[in-house]
Amino acid sequence: MKQLFELYFAFLRIGGLTFGGGMAMLPMLKREVVEKYGWSTEEELLDIYAIGQCTPGIIAVNTATYIGYQQKGVPGSIFSTLGMITPSIIIITLIATILKNFIDLPIVLHALAGIRIAVCALMLQTVYSLAKTSIKNKLGLLIFLIGFLTATFTPVPTILLVILAAGIGIITYTRKADH
């Protein structure tokens, strides 16, 4: 039971003190998961994080769930996930309660417009940094461009694009390995 609460509070700290998305939480994950508790090595943490990126949902929650499951099975995954989402639930509830009273003020509307712009900039920066580390050759660039254009300008479901890109990658690299 002690380790379940350690999982909860470790991910509560990470969830409450990490701003800026999945990449921003890596240093805290390393400090808590690798250095403080020794639940995984650095290499394992990066693998878990990569799996969290590939699976549907929020990277932080996926990573917490996986580490919790690795440590204490289903109860560990539940405690870790709850720890990770508790700060967000509290913050969103408080903001929604307070914002409801001030939403019509011009200063609040302008602030929200500014926040939307900042979020777009952060998302573009994340896409750029992921593209730099993920696109390793001409085929990867071609898959990226076709996927981006298809997702942007057609109603094709993105999950289908992910499955097709994975299939192309598997076929290509399997063929290379065979030769």
Poorly predicted runs? none
How many beta-strand segments?
Answer: 0
User: Per DSSP, what share of the residues sits in E-state strands of 2 or more residues?
Assistant: under 5%
* Order of helix and strand elements from N to C terminus: HHHHHHH
Tally of alpha and pi helices: 7
Question: How would you characterize the largest beta sheet?
Answer: none
pLDDT averaged over residues: 88
Helices, strands, pairings?
Blueprint: H1 2-17, H2 26-36, H3 42-54, H4 59-102, H5 106-134, H6 138-153, H7 158-178
Helix pairs in contact: 1-4, 3-4, 6-7
Report on this model:
There is one protein chain. The chain is an all-alpha fold and 179 residues long. The chain has helices at residues 2-17, 26-36, 42-54, 59-102, 106-134, 138-153, 158-178. It is built from 7 helices and no strands. The longest helix has 44 residues, at 59-102.
Summarize the model shown.
The protein is mainly α. Helices cover 84% and strands 0% of the residues.
